[in-house]
Amino acid sequence: MNDIIMVTGGAGYIGSHVVKLLLEKKQKVFIFDNLSAGHNQVLEFFKKTYGADADSFIFINADTLDEEGLRKAIDSVRKNHWISGIIDFAAKIAVGESQQKPLDYFTTNVVGFRNLLMATDHIPLVKSSTAAAYGSPLEEDIPLKESVIPKMIAAKRYDRSQLLPASVPFETLIEWYTKEVVEKYPFFYLDKADLEFLHIPVNVYGVTKVICEIMLKKHEKEAGRKHMALRYFNAAGADPSGLIGEDHIPETHLVPLVLKAAMGKVKCITVFGDDYDTPDGTCIRDYISVMDLADVHIIALNYIIKGGGSRTYNLGTNNGQTVMQIIEAAKKVTGRNIPVEMSGRREGDPTALVADASLIKKELGWKAKRGIDEIVSSAWKWHSSHPDGYK
Ligand SMILES: NC(=O)c1ccc[n+]([C@@H]2O[C@H](COP(=O)([O-])OP(=O)(O)OC[C@H]3O[C@@H](n4cnc5c(N)ncnc54)[C@H](O)[C@@H]3O)[C@@H](O)[C@H]2O)c1
């Protein structure tokens, strides 16, 4: 039987870059995506470049929320293939929206994930998590090591949730979790340390992702599921071909917004706060190339498939950029003006969010290779040749 790797959300931004790399490595891929934010044009591109569906990849348009449809899709693939691993990207990703529509985020990100876990036994799984797990950390903790969270919990730093105002309180998210997950599968029960971990994120999106990390640990205990949770902040850039790239609707990420401003598609870039304690007063964030992400998701999956133990790793560059540095990099690459408007600080925006990625370097030998200039130039190649994205 041929082995195949399942990529949920494989028609989306990061997922499509991972799928392309897998296909280039002649690895057969099973893309599971409901196309709520993914793009049919990506699938057309794969078909044209790597051969008709059955030869290189299988695409099933279905939703992780449709438990029966998910099981049927997996069974149909299993007739002729052995699913050797899963890389899971299917999620709702807009932090601001998650505060307004917590139930949508909880349902897709947590209930959908529950269904995926329960439909796929103990197949090794790489979960795209988020550095939102670190909430709004103290400056002394930057760059963030994975060990900061156990340290925060041991220090009992957060005896209550740090969630910023959302349309429901933290307790409601836990009630939903109990009803949708624990009542059906009691082994997913949250203990005191789990709740303290869940107190750290400042947005609903972050809470849903931390819940998934906790569920993975519990599923390993219950069913021996090997897993890898990869935490990162800002994915950016595009495949060097310029043929696939970032197209979120609406776009909320800085690099594409800045490039859209350079093209006149966005009127101006609002910079929230220029009085932070940073070299130019604007916030520092960690940008990681989508190509580096594609490499490392595959390395991580191979590690657990070959018997390596479950891990949680930060992905990052150990080196952040200020908002103004991103704008300057984009001006240099595009040779165009980027209109900027200064505004006050946004609530909950920490001065700096930078991941320390030395643990994955030490244990798996992976390190991000691409710097900000390469990220911005590759993104520009994509945006300038696709001014309306995939449309
Ligand atoms: N973009 C970033 O900067 C970033 C940073 C950290 C973590 N992440 C995580 O990486 C993953 C991918 O992010 P992205 O930027 O590629 O987002 P994206 O929106 O481009 O991709 C998500 C994909 O999942 C699909 N999907 C959503 N809900 C689904 C469901 N219920 N069933 C089936 N398919 C579904 C969408 O159609 C889309 O193709 C997400 O899990 C996100 O939380 C992203």
TrEMBL record:
One Pfam family hit: GDP_Man_Dehyd
Domain of life: Bacteria
Domain spans labelled NAD(P)-binding: 6-146, 201-377
Protein family (similarity comment): Belongs to the NAD(P)-dependent epimerase/dehydratase family.
This protein's name: UDP-glucose 4-epimerase
Origin species: Candidatus Desantisbacteria bacterium CG_4_10_14_0_8_um_filter_48_22
